[in-house]
Design goal:
- The protein is mainly alpha-helical and 139 residues long.
- The chain is 53% helix and 6% strand.
- The protein has a domain of 88 residues.
- It is flat and about 75 Å long.
């Protein structure tokens, strides 16, 4: 559904989400895996896997740190797939009309001030310098 209006805030294009059942089942399964990974990571932190408690060899500590890092990586990758599926399948695609600004509108107060002012005006040097550094000095 598209509107013909071109005023600021009008919806230009609206495509409803697909809301497929397969995506919903996938999100539920990925969420179950996410809960399991977070539980494994939490248990590992409480048990001290990555802190070296009960280990005397440096190799075991490095392996434990790599395992905990791998679990944390899997947590964030799984979370990214959950958000990707949700965004793709359950959020509408909406394009709204935005106000177009000219180049000079962001930097200057008036269109006449686009060319700027000369810096070496003698008496007005400080005022000119303030305007050059901060264009919205006096509105």
């Amino acid at each position: 559904m598209a509107s013909e209006g071109s005023t600021y805030g009008d919806i230009h294009r609206y495509e409803p989400p697909r809301e497929s059942t397969a995506a919903a089942v996938g999100i539920v399964l990925l969420t179950i895996i996410q809960v399991g990974l977070v539980g494994l990571f939490t248990y590992g932190m409480i048990a001290g896997w990555a802190s070296g408690i009960g280990t005397t060899l440096t190799v075991r500590l490095i392996e434990a740190n790599m395992f905990m890092g791998g679990v944390l990586t899997a947590i964030f990758i799984d979370l990214s797939f959950i958000m990707l599926l949700y965004r793709k399948e359950f959020l509408p695609d909406v394009m709204i009309v935005k106000k177009r600004r000219r180049k000079w509108e962001d930097l200057y107060i008036r269109q006449e001030d686009v060319d700027g002012e000369t810096v070496a005006d003698g008496d007005k040097f400080a005022e000119t310098f303030k305007r050059a550094v901060y264009p919205y000095y006096k509105k």
